[in-house]
């Protein structure tokens, strides 16, 4: 069990490192709210982040705001719940219609490795801390 747990932690950390690297290379990240942005900052993601829901803008206004940014690609990191999935789908459609390159690969990978344990981006740091504690317990047994 601890081997699988360690592999899951390592894989999640690798995905987060890829996100941090991409963010540093002129990729814009879209999250739902302030707590999601803080969680990414805690996970060492330093690039430009826009909050989709706290701005209280329509998808058209949000798309227009994203169009004004000078970025190579937009990484969507919305929540993994039903509403987040729907927002990801709709935002992807709007951005692609505006000829803006979108990336949902990291979102899908994180969702797969977090299973049903995590429903939002803001919970990732706590989830990783919990898994790391479990690993320490298994290691000391």
Characterization of this structure:
- The protein is an alpha/beta fold.
- It has one domain (2-128): 3-Layer(aba) Sandwich (Dna Topoisomerase Vi A Subunit, Chain: A, domain 2), CATH 3.40.1360.10.
- Helix content is 60%, strand content 10%.
- It has a 4-stranded parallel sheet, sandwiched between helices.
- Helix 1 runs antiparallel to helix 6 and helix 3 (59-68) crosses helix 4 (82-97).
- The longest helix has 23 residues, at 2-24.
- The chain is elongated and about 55 Å long.
- It starts with a helix and ends with a helix.
Index terms:
6 helices, 141 residues, four-stranded parallel β-sheet, alpha/beta
- Strand order in space, largest sheet: 2-1-3-4
Percent helix, as a range, is 55-70%
Low-confidence sequence ranges: none
CATH first level: which class?
Answer: Alpha Beta
Strand content: 5-15%
What can be said about the biggest beta sheet?
4 strands, parallel
Tell me the span between the first and last alpha carbons: 13 Å
Q: Count of helices?
A: 6
Overall residue-averaged pLDDT value: 89
Evaluate the radius of gyration: 16 Å
The secondary-structure element order is HEHEHEHEHH
Number of strands: 4
Strand pairing plus helix content: what structural class?
Answer: alpha/beta
CATH architecture: 3-Layer(aba) Sandwich
Instruction: List the domain count as a whole number.
Output: 1
Could you please say which CATH topology applies here? Dna Topoisomerase Vi A Subunit, Chain: A, domain 2
Give the CA-based shape: elongated
